[in-house]
Amino acid sequence: MCRALFTTLLLLIMDDQSITLDVNPKAYPLADQQMTTKILNLVQQAMNYKQLRKGANEATKTLNRGISEFIVCAADAEPLEILLHLPLLCEDKNVPYVFIRSKQALGRACGVSRPVIACSITTDEGSQLRPQIQQVQTEIERLLI
Questions:
Q1: Dihedral of CA 39/106/15/97: which sign?
Q2: pLDDT tens column, 106-129
Q3: Which of 15, 59, 125, 140 is 20 to 30 A (C-alpha) from 1?
Q4: Which residues fall within 8 angstroms of residue 73, CB to CB, at 6 or more apart?
Q5: Contact, 46 vs 52, CB < 8 A?
């Protein structure tokens, strides 16, 4: 009994360490678990309000058009370099960006059955999501400091 409990605890510790080791160091700033949950909930609501663009190409288009509020990228994209142009473009356009750990979770939040490596929350003047978007933007900017 005690040995099984110890083995389970050891596996949990190993799983926790593997989660932190799997993330590419280039994926910065990386959201913690609580912030990831908040971001994914906002992505899901933005999908319902038609304020969401899915995919790296669509996110690039929203940045170039100036309609992006912030960008969410997946840290487990393989290879990560396929979306590393987004942080550079975000810094040029002064748009906040953040990495989350799972492309599967981002895909589910975007309402599709496939993994999504990047998405963009877009602007809408009369949106009810405006206060939530601003709150997440300030939290992302705090990560960068």
A1: negative
A2: 999 999 999 999 999 999 988 999
A3: 15
A4: 27, 83, 86, 87, 97, 98, 99, 100, 117, 118
A5: yes
